[in-house]
Amino acid sequence: MGSISSDIIRGYNDTMILYLLWEAPSYGYEISKKIKSLTDEKYVIKETTLYSAFTRLEKNGFVEAFSENAAINGKRRTYYRITEQGRQYYREKCAEWTLTKEVVEKFIKEDGGV
Amino acid sequence: METIRNYLETMFARLPITLEVQKAKNELWQMMEDKYTELIKDGKTENEAVGIVISEFGNLDELAEELGISNFVLQENQKQAGNLRYVTLAEAKEYLHDKAHTACTVALGVLLCIISCCGYLLDSSWSLRGGLYAMCFMFLSIAAAVALFMYSGFVMGKWKFLKKRGCSVDFATAEYVHNRRESFRVTHAMMITIGVILCILSVLPVVIVTSLFSGRIGMGPVLMFVLIGIGVFLFVAAGNVNAGFTTLLSLNKSDTMGGSFVPSQKQVNYKNNTVSQMMSVYWPTVTCIYLCWSFLSFDWHITWIVWVIAAVVQQLIRAIW
Q: In a mutagenesis test of the B interface, which of A31, A47, A52 is the best target, namely the one with the most B β-carbons within 10 Å?
């Protein structure tokens, strides 16, 4: 299996982050770890990619950043919380993906063109 | 952990110091630290953990737009393709070694120049033979001094590129140099202090000898020049060694993240270009005025006021432009 092209997945980094923030606020490393484990290590997000996604989401008002001491070792971290706008955006992205998948799927041969 | 820190510092070293850049660096450091700690906890060796963290770091170009530095990154990339050169840690060590070495030879040369006239002072009878010896001593010491200067210039010649080409040092090197300078601080202060004391005490031999042997000066002036010579030797040596540290540390531009080691008072920037060019010859001009006035009028007791006025005027110019 080939690796994921970062150009393709870039448009959906935001969706993944919003999904992971849906239930509870989280911080940088925890999110990157969850992305890694949820995708069975098929997608490892780079630190710079993650940070640039955070700043973009924050600028658009989809997440809020706040500082808090971590429960485990008391280290001060920047946490991110999803906003109502963020939830709205996530729903839009989900709908967009369903449509995209539907369209692209029409052109994918069932046997993968073998 | 240290390796990761250095890696991050080096990546950020040439970015401008802005709030966004600082924040990004802190955030990225948090994530890298978390990842590293967890990898170690999972039983990875230190090298493996460092390797993983660095390979999964990504690329700063990706952040350019978010940090508002797209133009900057573009320029830097073009410059890098041009003639920017990194000074390695080994080179920095060698440079400091050469600098310390030549600091001594130059200072010794200056010392020889100062005492070169001592032959004439020793022989107050102005006999022909005495004059001959005195002249020989003077020329020999000046010749030796010139040889020392030339040797130093030759040794330091290979480091000329530091001043001419755009060079920069990475974080680890900057920190090394910074530490070296810190540990030299006490020695530097001692050398300057002893030098000043020697210069002040230098008049004592003349005074003592004159008062003891009513009217005869004898060894007095010679001792004075020797004391001043040693004092100046200490100034020159200490100053040169320090200049080496400063040269290396100021290679990085002061408005970038890597340039934060340079003491800020070193950078006096005049906004007006003409003024800044005029100010580059300010102190030489002041010296010239001082010497001309003093020698023409022989009013040494009052001419020193030039320095005080010059300092005030300089502050004024700094404040206005």
A: A47
